Amino acid sequence: LEAHRFDAAAGSLLAWADADGGIAGAVAGIGDPLDPYAHAHIPAALPAGDWHVAPGLDDEARKALQLGWGLGLYRFDRYKQNTRTAPRLVDTFDDETFAVLAACVRVRDLVNTPTEHMGPDELETVARELAATHGAMVEVIAGDALLAQNYPAIHAVGRASHRAPRIIELAWGDPAHPHVVICGKGVCFDTGGLDLKAAAGMRNMKKDMGGAAHALALAGLVMARKLPLRITLLVAAVENAVGPNAFRPGEVIATRKGVSIEVDNTDAEGRLVLCDALARAGELAPDLLLDFATLTGAARVALGPDLPALYANDDTLAHDWLAAGQRTRDPLWR
Known about the structure:
Number of domains: 2
CATH class of the largest domain: Alpha Beta
Strand content: 15-25%
Shape: elongated
Strand order of the largest sheet: 5-6-8-7-11
Low-confidence stretches: none
Helix content: 25-40%
CATH architecture of the largest domain: 3-Layer(aba) Sandwich
Distance between the termini: 43 Å
Number of strands: 11
Largest sheet: 5 strands, mixed
Order of helices and strands: EEHHEHEHHEHHEEHHEEEHEHH
Number of helices: 12
Radius of gyration: 23 Å
């Protein structure tokens, strides 16, 4: 280590050979041992093979290593196969850590998939697959049925697309347990509508369903861990497209709540689909309502790409959430 001047700086790694020229071991600089991302560089830097953790790592640091190893190995390979043989971590894996990793991978795969293969139909398929796996119930209202069932804002935003807009509702759990409603914004692509985005602003709009991806993954995680909760998942899935029947600036549209909205800019579609979903959530009178959305680029401008904004009307809950974020090295801003 001295010969290589290895200083154990965060993000560093050094492997060395044995007398026969094989790999004898490796040491990594990780910084904060409880931060999963402090470990994420390790599998990318190691050669293929089975790797074991040296003694001395406590349980919490070991969990962080396991999660970071999995996140560091992630590659989106649906369209281009990853030919690298990855190193394998040989360890006794923590069940909860593995479930969290699976949820993270689900979010990444959903967000990374282009809209051609991740539209409202595909989000519905994901919800139905989760329901089938965990014994949940799913109800979907799509197309013009949204008007008949009083989801007019979701219908207005998605009506110009060749893929029908919809509200997806999944229910799971014991009615005796606390009721949590999880809402997700599922705008599978956002052109901006008739207030068309510029090319640079439209380029990555496949990710405008990131809120739905998080909601689906969180619901799957709760069910996989069999937490003592009753959950309702609500995903408003649309594509904000341009077409002859696209909603227009200046139109006045109804909402499920009964409040009329005058559209000033069709690129502010996220709050329109969410207002119908949140109105439905309010009707269910849950003990807790969680909402995930890529609602405004202003948050990214202010906070950067790695710090999500948290808005809450319950200070105690917000404090607990912020504390949990600090404890797991996954912070938020409020």
